C-alpha cells in the first residue's frame, strides 16, 4: 500500500469536515474490495452527482482508489470519523462488523452492514443494540443476496410456523469450507446435501456462507428455528437461494438465481445492488 495519499486528521480534507458535512453527503466505505468498489462505481454514475466518498481498508491501494474512483483512503477509524461521514457502509467482512461498525454506531454515525452473518452472534447483536442506544444511531441490515424479507417480516404478525432455506452452489464453490475434505467436491455428480440443520449451526460451521441465512433468520423466526439445507449441486452454475415459509398468513416462496460480481465470484451482484439501494434510500431520507 502506498501511504502517500492516505489521509489523516491533519489533512485538508479532514480539517474542514464539520462545516462541509452539514451541506454535503459523505459516504464512508469500510472495505474497498469487489463490493466496495462496485458500490462506489454505481454511486459515481447515480443520481446524486458528486458525493464525497472515503474508504477505510488497511490492504487497499490508496493511489489506485484515488485515480480510479476518486476515493480518499483514511489510515484509521478516528481520522475517518473526524471527516464526519453521513453514513458508514460495511463491505469488509464479519470482523469489521465487530471491530469498526460498533464504534461508528457509538459515535452517532448510522451504519449499513453487508456482512449480515456476523449478526448470528447473540453477543454482537447485543453490543450493536447498545451502541445504537449510546450513539442515537441506526444499524441498517440489508437483504443482500436474498429478497422478499419484508414479506417474511410482516408475516410474523400472524405467527410463522416454519421457515426453510435451501441454498445450492456448484460443488467447486464449497472449496475452503468444512465440506471441502468431508466430500470429494470434484467428484460430486448429483445434488448433494453438505449441511442440514439450524441457521445457528450453519453460521457457526459455515460463517462465510451465513449472510443470507442470517438475513432470513433475523427477518423471520430466529437462528434456532430457521431450518437450513446447503447443497453442492453440479446442475447449477449460479448461487441459488430458496426460502419457504408457512403460517396462518399463507405460504411464501422465494427463489433467486444470482450472478456473481465480476471481481469476486463468491459475492452475488445482487448483494452489492442491495447496498447501493440502502445508500440511496438513506441519502434521500437526509435530502
Ligand atoms: N449480505 C449478503 O448477501 C452478502 C453477500 C456477499 C458478500 N457479503 C459480505 O460483503 C463482504 C465484502 O464482499 P467483497 O466481495 O467485497 O469481498 P472482498 O474480499 O473482495 O473485499 C473485502 C475487502 O475488505 C477489506 N477488509 C477486510 N477486513 C477489513 C477491516 N477490518 N477494515 C477495513 N477493511 C477490511 C479487505 O482488504 C478487502 O479489500 C464479504 O466479506 C461478505 O461478508 C454479504
**CATH topology (level 3) name of the largest domain:** Rossmann fold
According to CATH, what is the class of the largest domain?
Alpha Beta
From the helix content, strand content and strand pairing, which structural class follows?
alpha/beta
> Main sheet: which strands, in order across?
3-2-1-4-5-6
Bound molecules: nicotinamide-adenine-dinucleotide
Q: What would you give as the CATH superfamily of the largest domain? A: NAD(P)-binding Rossmann-like Domain
Strand content: 15-25%
| Measured distance between first and last alpha carbons | 36 Å
Number of helices: 12
Number of domains: 2
For the sheet with most strands, the description reads: 6 strands, parallel
Q: What is the arithmetic mean of pLDDT?
A: 90
Task: Tell me the number of strands.
Answer: 13
Radius of gyration: 20 Å
Helix proportion range: 25-40%
SSE pattern: HHEHEHEHEHEHEHEHEHHEEEEEH
Give the CATH architecture of the largest domain: 3-Layer(aba) Sandwich
- Model regions low in confidence, pLDDT < 50 over at least 5 residues: 1-5, 7-22
From the spread of the alpha carbons, the general shape counts as globular
List keywords for this structure.
13 strands, alpha/beta, Dihydrodipicolinate Reductase, domain 2, binds nicotinamide-adenine-dinucleotide, disordered N terminus, 287 residues
Question: Any overview of this molecule?
Answer:
The protein is α/β, with parallel strands linked by helices and 287 residues long. The chain folds into 2 domains: 158 residues, NAD(P)-binding Rossmann-like Domain (Rossmann fold), CATH 3.40.50.720; 116 residues, 2-Layer Sandwich (Dihydrodipicolinate Reductase, domain 2). Helices cover 38% and strands 24% of the residues. Strands 3-2-1-4-5-6 form a 6-stranded parallel sheet, sandwiched between helices. α3 links the parallel β1 and β2. α3 crosses α12, α6 packs parallel to α7 and α8 packs parallel to α11. The site of nicotinamide-adenine-dinucleotide has 30 residues, from α3, α6, α11 and β13.
Amino acid at each position: 500500500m502506498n501511504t502517500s495519499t492516505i489521509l489523516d486528521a491533519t489533512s485538508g480534507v479532514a480539517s474542514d469536515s464539520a462545516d462541509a458535512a452539514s451541506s454535503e453527503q459523505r459516504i464512508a466505505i469500510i472495505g474497498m474490495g469487489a463490493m466496495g468498489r462496485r458500490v462506489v462505481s454505481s454511486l459515481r454514475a447515480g443520481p446524486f452527482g458528486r458525493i464525497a466518498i472515503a474508504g477505510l481498508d488497511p490492504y487497499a491501494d490508496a493511489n489506485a482508489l484515488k485515480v480510479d474512483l476518486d476515493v480518499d483512503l483514511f489510515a484509521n477509524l478516528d481520522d475517518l470519523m473526524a471527516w464526519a461521514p453521513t453514513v458508514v457502509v460495511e463491505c469488509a467482512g464479519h470482523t469489521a462488523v465487530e471491530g469498526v461498525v460498533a464504534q461508528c454506531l457509538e459515535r452517532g454515525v448510522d451504519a449499513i452492514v453487508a456482512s449480515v452473518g456476523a449478526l448470528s452472534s447473540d453477543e454482537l447483536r447485543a453490543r450493536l443494540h447498545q451502541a445504537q442506544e449510546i450513539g442515537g444511531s441506526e444499524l441498517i441490515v440489508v437483504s443482500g443476496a436474498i429478497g422478499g424479507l419484508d414479506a417474511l417480516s410482516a408475516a410474523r404478525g400472524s405467527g410463522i410456523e416454519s421457515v426453510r432455506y435451501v441454498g445450492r452452489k456448484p460443488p467447486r464453490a464449497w472449496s475452503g469450507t468444512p465440506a471441502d475434505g468431508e466430500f470429494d467436491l470434484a467428484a460430486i455428480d448429483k445434488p448433494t446435501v453438505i449441511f442440514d440443520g439450524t441457521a445457528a449451526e450453519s453460521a457457526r460451521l459455515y460463517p462465510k456462507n451465513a449472510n443470507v441465512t442470517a438475513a432470513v433468520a433475523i427477518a423471520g423466526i430466529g437462528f434456532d428455528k430457521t431450518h437450513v439445507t446447503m447443497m453442492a449441486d453440479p446442475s447449477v452454475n449460479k448461487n441459488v437461494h430458496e426460502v419457504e415459509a408457512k403460517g396462518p398468513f399463507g405460504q411464501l416462496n422465494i427463489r433467486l438465481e444470482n450472478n456473481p460480481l465480476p471481481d469476486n465470484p463468491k459475492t452475488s451482484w445482487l448483494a452489492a445492488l442491495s447496498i447501493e439501494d440502502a445508500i440511496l434510500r438513506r441519502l434521500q431520507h437526509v435530502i
